[in-house]
Design goal:
This protein is of the alpha+beta class and 84 residues long. It has two domains: 30 residues; 35 residues, no CATH class. It contains two helices and three strands; from the N terminus they run H-E-E-E-H. The protein has a three-stranded antiparallel β-sheet. Strand 2 and strand 3 form a beta hairpin. The longest helix has 22 residues. The protein is flat. It starts with 8 loop residues before the first helix and ends in a 16-residue tail after the last helix.
């Protein structure tokens, strides 16, 4: 990914997602990783099949599907006072 001045928040989010993706791929190639897919915790080793660990509970899947199907979300920015 070419380095350029990040102006928009979407550019920052895309760059962060790219870095996380690359670091996950690097970790998955070198050792065991844990990941969540469809509310199920999986463990995977290099050159191995995913192993079921646990079904996650406490989340309403109907509610989460409704949120993802809505499309765009607006996030309100608030002025925060930083104390150093």
């Amino acid at each position: 990914m070419p380095t350029r001045k990040l102006i928009y928040e979407c550019d920052i989010a895309k760059a962060a997602a790219y870095i996380l993706r690359e670091s996950f791929i690097k970790a998955a190639r070198s050792g065991k990783v844990l990941y969540v897919e469809n509310d199920i915790l999986w463990s995977k080793t290099p050159h191995g099949q995913p192993v079921f660990i646990k079904k996650l509970s406490g989340r309403n899947p109907i509610f989460s599907r409704g949120i993802t199907n809505r499309g765009t979300f607006k996030i309100k920015k608030r002025n925060a006072k930083v104390v150093i």
